[in-house]
Amino acid sequence: MGKAYFKQSNGMYAVNIVAACGVMTPGQMEGLGKAARECGVFRLKLTTRQTIVAIIDEQNLSSLVDRLADLELMVSPYGNAVRAVKACAGSEALCPRALGDALDLGIKLQEKYLGRETPKDVKIAVAGCPRGCTDPLCADIGIIARNVDSFDVYLGGRGGSAKPVHGSLIAEKVTEAGVFKLFDHTLKAYASLAQPVERISAVVARMGIDPFLPPKELIAINSAGEPEDEDFLSFLGLKGSDAS
């Protein structure tokens, strides 16, 4: 595993900075802005992985990095490791369409798994409803909330490619505690099955999804009634039909 420092065509360096699934306090934002000014950062850019890239001269790089810890920020791991988690704003407090608390789960997953060594980089995406604003079906591991403390988990998606792949459903209506047990099982299976630098999607294509399926006794499910997402059903043309 390495750290996300990348030399740019203009000779400057890009530093990929991780927050809690893109969530920052005003103090962190203010502190990062101050550090960026004082360290001569050329530009700051938001990324699709909910991180912030700072473009900076090489001689100022260490000064900026040294100040991140005081802000409870860090440089993203890169390479054969679990990457920064993407999570939407799905929660009761932030999104009226959320069926479950995707943001809180995403932050907890990042706190536990970020930087864990894997055969190839692993990207995780969590969504609070079937709209999937974080593209969970195109992540190595994707999670979609169905209800409070009830999530569907997908494996083997791949985005950022001319031939994107949707992940396969490996567990339904999993509780939050079950998600963590499932993650541990999945990462262990991936480590044992993968060839060197082989993505999860490639392992699934080579071996099928069955080797990754968890034993039924491993995870608890939540079978409580699920609220209908009327806007989404309307978008699919299912509202009011027998298919809904």
Automatic annotation (TrEMBL):
One GO MF term on file is: oxidoreductase activity
Q: Where is the Nitrite/sulphite reductase 4Fe-4S domain?
A: 79-213
Which InterPro entries would you find in this protein's record? NasD-like (IPR052034), NiRdtase/SiRdtase_haem-b_fer (IPR005117), Nit/Sulf_reduc_fer-like_dom_sf (IPR036136), NO2/SO3_Rdtase_4Fe4S_dom (IPR006067), NO2/SO3_Rdtase_4Fe4S_sf (IPR045854)
Keyword terms, alphabetized: Heme, Iron, Iron-sulfur, Metal-binding, Oxidoreductase
Q: Looking at the record's lineage, which domain of life comes first?
A: Bacteria
Task: Identify the residues that the record assigns to the Nitrite/Sulfite reductase ferredoxin-like domain, covering every copy.
Answer: 8-70
PROSITE patterns in alphabetical order: PROKAR_LIPOPROTEIN
This one is known as: Nitrite/Sulfite reductase ferredoxin-like half domain-containing protein
The beginning of the lineage is: Bacteria, Bacillati, Bacillota, Clostridia, Eubacteriales
